[in-house]
Every structure is written in structure tokens, then in C-alpha cells.
Design goal:
The chain is of the alpha/beta class and 507 residues long. The chain contains 17 helices and 22 strands.
Length: 507
């Protein structure tokens, strides 16, 4: 048997409880190896150990047949291990170019060789598809999808002659399908030249498409390793969950009711062309579009986060119309926003699950009960933990220690506790496992069936097609078309999403 690029034997790691239990894995040279599992299965812990961010409690790692025991991320990089993390390792106040080449900034005498820096950065940006942005642009000005492409460019920028292993953690979670296809082509090209890749993703179709072999982790133990050609999505789901999961088809949904939210001629710096839409009681309205189409900006504008705008955003309750011109007014009148980037725009890091759960509804708990408030917070949080099956140690656990899927459930709990009736959701299942995704989909359908009005932006067309009653397609920050259930197709939606970009190129 040939020497593996990476060999792992009996790897174990424990925090409050065992996370990895004598796990073994073998990554061959030039192989794209998929790693899947539910949130909390141990995937992040495993790749953090391999990339030098964590120390294992026990086990042996070998790189090209030699003992591998990095003392930190820098040493792992020096040995040829590159990581593109789901939790982006980028610096907001640096430029794209500086972020991409941060670990290997080219030097010219005693100063930075800026010309070479920009040339190398532009080459990597072109490779991952960031054609439309200057490399001098500050990272803070980019969308989440664009930041993810910068993270990928940073990992791919390592000298191919010394890069041994590339670890991609949810590399397509914020990308559109064309962007994901481009990335997959790059991965296959690099693997053909001898690079080994660990590909971690919850998008099972992507894993099956791009990987040579796939391993499944469940509760810290390896359940399955097999060639991808011998596996199906159903096989992976069964191995991940321990039971078969069947698609929860949406049968028997009643007709939607009266208009609950009306947006009329809304325009801003992000939306120079006025946009109008309506969302009814008992309806899920989807927002589809390419990266940069303005989905997130539209949701933020509806929620009252854009100060300078024209037009009207109106909530309608029992015939009464309430104008929404600020986020505080939106919250006070039963509107919820779950933003795309839960790390920077959703959770309160280093705070408890209890505080994160009750933050939006603190006013309803009663200011006169200040002394009893922490106890009441914990009680409400415990009820939500049970209701949404949030995997954690309890209300007082710090939210940063939860998996991504369970953090997302806490955000849902926050607005459920606040009794929100109009929901704005931006990529509500980004980067979470298939079981958590099904649980959230069921929660969204329950909210709709109980009379809620929901607007969901997603880069996954399959998710919109599964959930939505209508889909509004945006292209280059314009509303292009609205499709009713039963009258749409992926082809029609994609054609509308590309329409304004095609018009621009034709001019």
C-alpha cells in the first residue's frame, strides 16, 4: 500500500464530553476526500487538530509517512497544510490583496513589494471568480459570499510546490451554484496535480459530485468510508443520523390570507430602482438571485436598518397600517430578522444561550422583575431548548461552544420567544447539517401554517423550491419576476437571475 498523504489513527479529543472517540482516517495523495456529519459530530474538531489549531488528547498523525504534530497554525502552514475555514479567518480593515497573501507577503528589500502583491492577489481573485472588485478594496465592504471567495483565494494562494493538504470547511455555504461549480473545477485541477483535499460540507450533492471518497462522522466516531461512486445522498443521511430520513413533502397547505407586509416603491443607495412587494399572512415568499443581487440589502431595508431611503414599508394588522422606519419599531410590532452572517450579525458571542434566546423579548419579561429576570431568562431558555431540540449543556452554556446548527436554532428561539409574526430570514440554513436543516424547514412551515408571513432569501434554489409559495427573483438589485408555486422551474429562475447581467454585457 502506498504511503498516505495524511494518516490518522485513534484520534481522541474531549471538552466537557468526548468529541472524537479513537477516530481514524486516511487521505491519499491527489485525492479529494469528503467529510460529512451532523453539526456536533466532530468534523470541526478533527480539522482543527489537523490544521494545528487544537491538540489531540491521544492518537497518531502522519504526514507523508512521518510523524505530524504541529504546535500551532503557523507550523502546520509551514508543513504545507492550508485551511479555508467556514468561520472566516480574515481581517476586516485590510484590503482583499493583503488578506489573500497575509501569510506570505512578498518583500522587496526592507519594504512591501506592493506591485508583486497586487499581481499575485489579482491572479488568485481571477481564479476564484472575483472579477468585478479591485484588490485594493477593504474586506469590510464585501458581502459574505465575496468574503468566502477571498478566504478560498487565501487558502489556494499557498505555493503549489509546498502545499500538501488543503482543508475546505463549508466552502460553498454562501456561494451560488455557478460559483460552486467554478470552485469544484479548481479543486479537481489541483488534485490532478497531486494536491490532497479534505472537503467538509453539508451540501451532499456537492460532496458526491466533487469527491473521490467520502467519510461520515457521527458522535465523534467514523461510521463509513467509501468511494463516492458507490454512495447516494440517502446512504450518507442514513450513516449521519443512524436512521433513514425521508423528504418531508409539503402537502395540504391552505391558501394564504390578507396582506401582512407591504413594501411600496422602496429605494435607497443599494436600490436605485424602486422595488415593491407584498407578503401575505400564511405565506412564504422566497428571494432568489445571484451574489450581489441585493437580497440581504433588501431585507435590511425592510427591517428598518437603512436610514436614507424612499418609499414605504408597512405592516398591516387587523386593518391598521403601521409604518416601519426603524429596527426598534419593526421589533416592537412583531417583525424578526435572522441575518446571513450569524457570527457577526446574529449571536452575542461569549454570552449564554439564555441571554441570546431572550434578548429580543426582554421587554416582555417585565422590567419590574429585575431581580428575578436572570432566573426567568433561564426558564424561558430551557423551554426553548426543549422545544427546538437544541444540543447544549443548558441555558448557561456560552453560545460560542455550540455547533453552527444549534446556534441557528437559538436565533429562531429568540424570535419565537418574542412572538414574531413577520419573519425576514437571510440564508436560514447556511452551513448547517441536513437534520438541523429539516428541523428548521419544519419550523418555518409551522410558522407559516399558524398565520406567519415569511420572506426567505437563499442561494440554494432547491431550498426555495421546497419551501416557498412564491419566489421573487432579483437581478442586479432589480425585481425581475415573481413565480407562483407550480409555475416555476430552475431554468426560469436562473434566466431571470442572470437577465440584468446579460443586459449589461450586451450594452
Amino acid at each position: 500500500m502506498m504511503t498516505a498523504r495524511l494518516a490518522i489513527e485513534g484520534l481522541s479529543k474531549r471538552f466537557a464530553a468526548p468529541v472524537l472517540k479513537r477516530t481514524s482516517l486516511r487521505i491519499e495523495t491527489g485525492c479529494v476526500h469528503g467529510l460529512v456529519g451532523e453539526n456536533g459530530a466532530g468534523k470541526s474538531t478533527l480539522i482543527n487538530i489537523v490544521s494545528g489549531l487544537l491538540k489531540a488528547d491521544e492518537g497518531i498523525l502522519q504526514l507523508n509517512g512521518k510523524t505530524y504534530d504541529p504546535h500551532g497554525r503557523k507550523e502546520a502552514l509551514g508543513l504545507g497544510i492550508a485551511l479555508a475555514s467556514q468561520e472566516l479567518s480574515l481581517i476586516e480593515n485590510l484590503s482583499i490583496a493583503e488578506n489573500i497573501l497575509l501569510t506570505a507577503l512578498p518583500q522587496k528589500l526592507l519594504s512591501l513589494d506592493r506591485r508583486n502583491l497586487l499581481r499575485e492577489a489579482n491572479r488568485m481573485m481571477t481564479e476564484v471568480g472575483l472579477f468585478h472588485i479591485s484588490s485594493d478594496t477593504l474586506l469590510s465592504q464585501l458581502s459574505l459570499a465575496e468574503k468566502q471567495l477571498v478566504e478560498l483565494a487565501k487558502a489556494l494562494s499557498m505555493d503549489p510546490a509546498r502545499c500538501q493538504l488543503l482543508i475546505l470547511d463549508e466552502p460553498t455555504s454562501a456561494l451560488t451554484q455557478p460559483q460552486a461549480d467554478r470552485l469544484h473545477a479548481i479543486i479537481r485541477q489541483r488534485a490532478a496535480a497531486g494536491l490532497s483535499v479534505i472537503y467538509v460540507s453539508h451540501r451532499l450533492d456537492d460532496v458526491l459530485q466533487v469527491c473521490d471518497s467520502i467519510s461520515v462522522l457521527r458522535d465523534g466516531e467514523m461510521q463509513l468510508t467509501a468511494p463516492s461512486s458507490a454512495l447516494t445522498s440517502k446512504d450518507l443521511i442514513t450513516a449521519m443520523s443512524g436512521e433513514e430520513l425521508f423528504r418531508n413533502e409539503d402537502h395540504g397547505h391552505s391558501e394564504s390570507g390578507d396582506v401582512r407586509l407591504r413594501v411600496k416603491n422602496f429605494s435607497s443607495a443599494d436600490y436605485p430602482d424602486p422595488i415593491s412587494l407584498e407578503c401575505h399572512r400564511g405565506e412564504i415568499l422566497g428571494l432568489a438571485g445571484l451574489t450581489g443581487s441585493g437580497r440581504s440589502e433588501l431585507l435590511h431595508g425592510i427591517f428598518g436598518l437603512v436610514r436614507k431611503h424612499q418609499g414605504e414599508v408597512t405592516l398591516i394588522e387587523n386593518g391598521a397600517e403601521i409604518s416601519i422606519d426603524s429596527a426598534s419599531k419593526a421589533v416592537a410590532n412583531g417583525m424578526a430578522l435572522i441575518a446571513e452572517d450569524r457570527k457577526s450579525q446574529g449571536i452575542f458571542s461569549n454570552k449564554s444561550v439564555a441571554l441570546n434566546t431572550t434578548m429580543a423579548g426582554l421587554g416582555k419579561l417585565g422590567s419590574s422583575l429585575a431581580a428575578a429576570l436572570p432566573k426567568r431568562e433561564q426558564q424561558i431558555s430551557a423551554e426553548m431548548i426543549e422545544r427546538l431540540q437544541i444540543k447544549c449543556e443548558g441555558p448557561l452554556q456560552v453560545i460560542d461552544r455550540l455547533s453552527g446548527g444549534n446556534q441557528q436554532k437559538v436565533l429562531f428561539a429568540r424570535w419565537l420567544q418574542a412572538e414574531a409574526e413577520v419573519w425576514l430570514l437571510d440564508e436560514p440554513t447556511r452551513g448547517i447539517d441536513v437534520n438541523a436543516k429539516i428541523a428548521i424547514h419544519n419550523q418555518l412551515k409551522e410558522l407559516r401554517d399558524n398565520g406567519g408571513a415569511l420572506i426567505i432569501a437563499s442561494s440554494e434554489l432547491e431550498e426555495l423550491i421546497t419551501l416557498c409559495d412564491r419566489i421573487l427573483v432579483l437581478s442586479n438589485r432589480k425585481a425581475i419576476a415573481t413565480f407562483e408555486r407550480g409555475r416555476w422551474s430552475k431554468e426560469k429562475i436562473l434566466a431571470a437571475a442572470f437577465s440584468e447581467h446579460q443586459t449589461q454585457r450586451a450594452v
